[in-house]
Amino acid sequence: MHASYRYHHGILxxxxxxxxxxxxxxxxxxxxxxxxxxxxxxxxxxxxKKAFAQLQPQIHFAMKCNxxxxxxxxxxxxxxxxxVVSGGEARAALAAGFAPEKIxxxxxxxxxxxxxxxxxxxxxxxNVESLEELERLGQIARTQQKTIAVGMxxxxxxxxxxxxxxxxxxxxxxxxxxxxxxxxALQKIKSYSPWLRLQGLSSHIGSQIRDISPLVESxxxxxxxxxxxxxxxxxxxxxxxxxxxxxxYYSDDESKxxxxxxxxxxxxxxILGDTPLKLLMEPGRWLVARSGTLxxxxxxxxxxxxKNFIILNTGMHHLLRPALYKAHHRILPxxxxxxxxxxxxxxxxPICESSDVIGQDRWFAEPQEGDWMAIMDAGAYxxxxxxxxxxxxxxxEVLI
Length: 400
Ligand code: LLP
Prior knowledge:
Layout: E1 5-8, E2 11-16, E3 19-22, E4 33-36, H1 38-51, E5 58-62, H2 69-77, E6 81-84, H3 87-95, E7 103-105, H4 112-121, E8 125-128, H5 131-144, E9 148-153, H6 182-191, E10 196-202, H7 213-231, E11 238-240, H8 255-272, E12 278-281, H9 285-288, E13 292-303, E14 308-312, H10 321-325, E15 331-334, E16 342-348, E17 357-365, E18 372-375, E19 396-399
Parallel strand pairs: 4-19, 5-6, 5-12, 6-7, 7-8, 8-9, 9-10, 10-11, 11-12, 14-16
Antiparallel strand pairs: 1-2, 2-3, 4-13, 13-14, 13-18, 15-18, 16-17
C-alpha cells in the first residue's frame, strides 16, 4: 500500500492508509518536493517484522537510503535500530535519539576519527571490512581501553543479478574479506584481546535484489562459518544478513515483492531455526522506496525538430538513480487539462548533462507548463543522493 494520486473535485490528493489527504497543500510552485507516506512505511515495517517473527531479528534500518528526520523517528518508535556508514550518519542517528546500542557501523573506509568516535560511544557493533581496518580499530580500542564488538564482514563471492554498480558480495568488489582471510582476521582479533571481541559475521551482497536465492546462499555461507567458529569456542552472538531486498519499479503492483519477503522469511526461519545467534538485518530500500514520491513541475514542453522533451524543474541532482544506473521510475502526469493524444517524450531535467534523463521514451498526453508530475518509488536513495551540481536548490521533504 503506497500512495496513489489523483485529482478529486479539482484537488490533488493521495491515499494515505485509509485516508484521502490533499497533497496540494504541500506543493509550492517552483519547488520540487519529496513527499513521504508514513502509513506505508509503518505497514512495511510491520510486514517485515511479521515475516521474520519466529526469529525476532534486530532490524537496523540502512539510513543511507533515507535520512529524513521524521522517517528516522518512525524507525525509532517502531523499535528498529539503525545501520550507518559514516561518522556523519552516526552523529545524525545519535542526534535522532538512537541509543548507541541500537547502531551498527558499516562502511569500507572508516577513518581514525570515525572509529575513535564509534569506540567512545560504544556502538552495538562495528562491521569491519578488512584486516587493515581491524588493525586500526584494535589500536584505537586498546588506547581507549574499551572493548568493542566486531562484526566481521565477509565477501562470500556471490554474483547477484542487479546493476553492476550495486553488487557488493562478489570477489571483485571492494567490500568485506574473503573466507581465506578469516583465520588471519581471528588472529588479529586475538592479538587485541580483550579490546576486540568477535561478536558475529556479517555480509551484504548487493542492493535491489529480486531473487532471494543469492541472499539465502550468502546466509548459508555465514552460518557454516559461524558454526565452525562456535565449535572452536568463539562466543558469537550475532549473524548479520545485511539488506538488499528489491522492489518492482515498473509496476504499482506490490504483491510480488511482498511474496518475495514472505519466501525469504520462511527460508531464513528454516535455516536459522536452531542457532543461538541473533539475526541482524539491514534493510533500506524495501522499507521506504515505495513510500516516497518526488513531485516536480513542467518547465517546458520542447520539440527540438527531432524529438519531444518534457523538461522538469527536477533532475539528476535531485534523483540520481536514472542517470547513474539507468534505473526506471514510473512518472505520473498530474494535469487538470483534458487528455489529448499521447506522444512519446523523454522526461529530462535542467542539468547541463545529457545523462540528466528521468524517464526515456514515455507516452503522455501533452502536459502544460506548470503541471505537476509525480516520480514514483523515490523514497529510497533519492534525497540522500541529491547534490548541489549546477547550484539549483535542493528539494523540500515532507512526511504526511
Ligand atoms: N547494509 C549495507 C552494508 C549496505 O551497504 C546497504 C546498501 C544496505 C545495508 C541497504 O541495502 P538495501 O536494503 O537498501 O538494498 N544507491 C543505490 C543503492 C546502493 C546500496 C548501497 N548499500 C540505488 O539507488 O539503487
